[in-house]
Amino acid sequence: MSSLPKCPACSSEYTYEDGSLLICPECGHEWSLEAESETAEESKVFKDANGNVLQDGDSVTIIKDLKVKGTSSVLKMGTKVKNIRLVDGDHDIDCKIDGFGAMKLKTEFVKKA
């Protein structure tokens, strides 16, 4: 198997090299390998409220009571969240919380457990 990266547009693993460009046959996206390495170096670093670096799969604890939008429920301080997934966007963490289901949290309201 080749060690070429997946397509950044559609995540297809069938990329191929054409000169200095990488091409995805499924969506037609073209990009250079140099741009791929630069974006990997500039990837966002997610930090919790105490400044600890967070990674996918970490467990975190909520540091303040949070109202759940659209319901009358509240996530209590000290609730432990396991196996987080870090994403780009307004909310940095996708997770599942026992008793609540799927949630999106901001890193400023959690600390690494």
TrEMBL record:
<dbReference type="InterPro" id="IPR013988">
    <property type="entry name" value="YjdM_C"/>
</dbReference>
<dbReference type="Pfam" id="PF03831">
    <property type="entry name" value="YjdM"/>
</dbReference>
<dbReference type="Pfam" id="PF08274">
    <property type="entry name" value="Zn_Ribbon_YjdM"/>
</dbReference>
<feature type="domain" description="Protein YjdM N-terminal">
    <location>
        <begin position="3"/>
        <end position="32"/>
    </location>
</feature>
<comment type="similarity">
    <text>Belongs to the YjdM family.</text>
</comment>
<dbReference type="InterPro" id="IPR004624">
    <property type="entry name" value="YjdM"/>
</dbReference>
<protein>
    <submittedName>
        <fullName>Alkylphosphonate utilization protein</fullName>
    </submittedName>
</protein>
<feature type="domain" description="Protein YjdM C-terminal">
    <location>
        <begin position="47"/>
        <end position="113"/>
    </location>
</feature>
<dbReference type="InterPro" id="IPR013987">
    <property type="entry name" value="YjdM_N"/>
</dbReference>
